[in-house]
Amino acid sequence: MNLPAWLAGKAVGIGTVIAMMTLALIQDQSPPEQLGVTTSAATTLRTRGSAAGANGIAVLTASLDTI
Q: Is the pTM of this model over 0.70?
């Protein structure tokens, strides 16, 4: 895949901004005494979602390779 560097940079930047904006929104909406719980829950769920997504892409890639 021959992807221009500027396009790859924009994709990485968009992903980072979306993740940080979501975390800021969650922290803004939670009560101060629950801030740690909501932050850790959001981070845990984001990590699990990333792992599941990476696993799904690996399975699809492996299945396409065997065709």
A: no
The C-alpha atoms of residue 64 and residue 67 are separated, in whole angstroms, by 5
> What's the distance, CA 23 to chain centroid?
11
CA quadruple 31, 33, 35, 41: dihedral sign = negative
Domain that holds residue 23: 5-65
Instruction: Show the 3-state SS of 47-65.
Output: HHHHHHHHHHHHHHHHHHH
Reported as a single tens digit per residue, the pLDDT across 9-61 is: 887 788 788 888 999 999 999 999 999 999 999 999 999 999 999 999 999 99
